[in-house]
Write a structure and sequence with these properties.
The N terminus is likely disordered. The two termini are 33 Å apart. This protein is an all-alpha fold. It has one domain: Up-down Bundle (Amino acid/polyamine transporter I), CATH 1.20.1740. The protein is built from 20 helices and two strands. Helix content is 76%, strand content 1%. The protein has a two-stranded antiparallel ribbon with strand order 1-2. The relative contact order is 0.18. It binds phenylalanine. The site of phenylalanine has 16 residues, from helix 1, helix 2, helix 5, helix 10 and helix 14. Phenylalanine binds next to helix 1, helix 2, helix 5, helix 10 and helix 14. This is Transporter. Its main location: membrane. Belongs to the sodium:neurotransmitter symporter (SNF) (TC 2.A.22) family. GO terms for molecular function: symporter activity. Keywords: Membrane, Symport, Transmembrane, Transmembrane helix, Transport.
Length: 486
């Protein structure tokens, strides 16, 4: 086991971590992915399950990850190992750190392709290539943009280069400053688009689509997607938040920080939904259109509104920036692990990682053109990366983290680290011990087809199950009583 020679870097300002973590959380997941998967899974019920997952699983797991990072002061692998050894538990738990690091890397491999779309649409906006196009043209433009591997590869390579350039320069430089103007800018752009949507004729339908709860429309696959997206959008179980937490000064409140990041992230996603769906409905596009949803719809609005070209350029600048502040956080875990353990410089670590990343992301990029037929069980490579990370690795990683913090570690470590008032600590412990794990397990049981869980009908039974499991857990684990007493 090696210990870093130098004291670990910390964020610059008081807001440093909040800004960087918000920058990581708010990204293509909110603006590109949330609307399109909401469309694919039928709207309202999906949104409700997603919100429940953020609250019941995302927030407690995020607090846990930040605490792991800060207490272990290292990359996910090192931090988890240090924290478990401190409690006298098996270092094998650091496998959770390995899985998180791998997930972050896999996500980045397809994320740069989507970020590349954003950059290429910025270019199209600037050069006026989208002017005068109607709905059908937009669909064709998206397809044509993907069809040429050199075009698509150029943009994803550009994103890879930019990401590695920023990461190579270090954690503090630039991240905090760029997020502090980009976030408000993004919110203003979304408000303008929502304002436009209110007059486009599709707003009422969009509102109903997003917020009216129709339990029947949700499949088990949709529930697993909602759970996975809660992890994805908060950058959990992928090394990002944990590694950023390792740079957090010891006096900052983890709970308050987590809360502000989660609220900002959720608001941006809902706003993105409210910006995109009115345009979808007003133009007769299909909400289940898939990954191209954003790129086929928003340019239509930019053409129709006053100052549209200007707003369109600003929007894609901000979307590209939001993508970059997320992508840098995905490799931070790998790079900081290499720096701490292999004795190489940050620059070398970043560029070395970048080369491997470039190879894998190129394969992902080819899924849209040359490799469109290279499928396995109906999914191409790009889909596999997304599917494996969001539906499996992140929920399972989060489950592991929650159980580890809830049952395995000495209760003092996290009591100190989180520094919560006793009743809040008890609530956090209740969440990581029972609510989050049970939520994750129930969704898995449903998705694997072991048993059908219809939330609309069975929620009283689920509450009863929660109560029983809690009771059993507390009888079996006398530690909680000591925690509550202390
Ligand atoms: N949360 C980011 C987004 O919504 C994506 C991300 C996933 C970032 C995992 C870091 C780690 O775009």
């Amino acid at each position: 086991m090696t210990t870093p020679q130098q004291p670990r870097a910390q964020w610059l300002g008081r807001w440093g971590f909040v800004l960087a973590a918000t920058g990581s959380a708010v990204g293509l997941g909110n603006i590109w992915k949330f609307p399109y998967i909401t469309g694919e899974h039928g709207g309202g019920a999906f949104v409700l399950v997603y919100l429940a997952c953020i609250l019941a699983v995302g927030v407690p797991v995020m607090m846990t990850e930040i605490a792991f990072g800060r207490r272990g002061r290292g990359s996910p692998i090192d931090a988890v190992r240090r924290v478990v050894t401190e409690s006298g538990r098996s270092p094998l738990w650091s496998l959770l750190g390995w899985m998180a690091m791998l997930a972050g890397f896999m996500i980045l491999s397809f994320y740069v392709v989507v970020a590349g779309w954003s950059f290429s649409y910025l270019w199209k906006m600037v050069t006026g290539q989208l002017a005068g196009s109607n709905v059908d043209d937009m669909v064709a433009i998206f397809a044509a943009n993907n069809a040429n591997p050199f075009n698509l590869g150029f943009w994803s390579t550009l994103v890879t280069l930019l990401t590695m350039l920023i990461v190579g320069k270090g954690v503090q430089a630039g991240i905090e400053r760029s997020v502090s103007w980009m976030m408000p800018g993004m919110v203003i752009m979304l408000l303008i688009l929502i304002g436009y949507g209110m007059f486009s004729g599709g707003f009422g339908e969009a509102w109903r689509f997003l917020f009216s709860f129709n339990a029947g429309s949700l499949t088990s696959d949709g529930m697993l997607a909602a759970l996975g997206h809660a992890f994805f959008t908060l950058s959990l179980a992928s090394g990002a938040i944990l590694t950023y937490g390792s740079y957090l000064p010891s006096r900052t409140s983890i709970a308050r920080t987590t809360f502000s990041v989660a609220v900002a992230d959720t608001l941006v996603a809902l706003m993105a939904g409210l910006a995109i769906f009115p345009i979808i409905f007003a133009n007769g596009l299909n909400p289940g259109e898939g990954p191209g949803l954003l790129f086929m719809s928003l340019p239509l609005a930019f053409q129709a509104m006053p100052l549209g070209t200007l707003f369109g350029i600003l929007f894609f600048v901000m979307l590209s920036m939001a993508a970059l502040t997320s992508s840098i956080s995905m490799v931070e875990a790998t790079v900081s692990w290499l720096v701490d353990n292999k004795g190489i410089s940050r620059r070398t670590a970043a560029w070395g990682t970048g080369i491997v990343l470039w190879l894998i992301s190129t394969l992902a990029m080819l899924s849209f053109n040359l490799g469109a037929d290279w499928t396995l069980a109906g999914r191409h490579f790009f889909d596999w990366l997304d599917y494996l990370t969001s539906r499996w690795m992140m929920p399972l990683g989060g489950l592991g983290m929650a159980l580890l913090a809830g049952f395995v570690l000495k209760s003092e470590s996290f009591r100190e680290e989180l520094g919560l008032a006793p009743h809040w600590h008890a609530l956090w412990l209740f969440m990581v011990r029972y609510v989050s794990p049970l939520g994750i397990l129930v969704i898995f049981v449903d998705a694997l087809g072991i048993a059908r869980v219809e939330f609309g009908m069975h929620w009283p039974w689920l509450l009863l199950l929660l109560a029983l499991v809690t009771l059993a857990g507390e009888i079996l684990s006398p530690r909680l009583r000591r925690t509550l007493a202390g």
